[in-house]
Write a structure and sequence with these properties.
Elements: H1 4-18, H2 23-30, H3 34-41, H4 49-59, H5 63-79, H6 98-107, E1 110-115, E2 119-127, E3 130-137
Antiparallel strand pairs: 1-2, 2-3
Length: about 150
């Protein structure tokens, strides 16, 4: 299952790293502690709307742009089978034959990739409760226009 706070954190980190800025620079500009900003970027803390706006301002980004990016990422993840669907709990007394198969399936990581032409989403699901979602904006290639007379 993908957590919204992880998608927000990934989007913030991608913007900061794209500007070649350190956590210290952005945390100082946003008036938030470096440790707390780090936890937000890692998806361990969910920022308030006020704090998110301050971080976006420090990054020179509009809050609506960030939320649109997060929305696009989550929308793509919803189309991927099993990513945003909670996994059913195991029965209290599983059969002895079924138990090894369940453990083997749970120990195997699931990796899925999807793209809509604008956003590419990669999901690495390690367990029913732990999934890493990576999104990247697909940039249109610059096209050369040649005019002949």
């Amino acid at each position: 299952m993908v957590l919204l706070r992880r998608v927000i954190g990934d989007a913030l980190r991608a913007r900061r790293q794209g500007q070649h800025r350190t956590l210290r620079e952005v945390s100082s500009a946003a008036n938030v502690s470096l440790g707390y900003l780090s936890e937000i970027e890692r998806g361990q803390k969910e920022p308030s709307s006020e704090l998110l706006a301050a971080i976006c301002d420090a990054l020179g980004a509009r809050l609506s742009e960030l939320l649109r990016e997060v929305s696009d990422t989550v929308a793509l993840a919803e189309q991927m089978p099993g990513v945003l669907v909670p996994v059913q709990d195991e029965p209290a007394e599983p059969a002895a034959v079924a138990r090894p198969a369940v453990r083997k399936a749970a120990g195997r990581a699931v990796h899925q990739v999807s793209s809509d032409g604008k956003v590419a989403v990669s999901v690495h699901q390690d367990s029913p409760l732990k999934a890493t979602l990576r999104s990247t904006r697909v940039r249109q290639a610059d096209r050369d226009v040649v005019c002949a007379a």
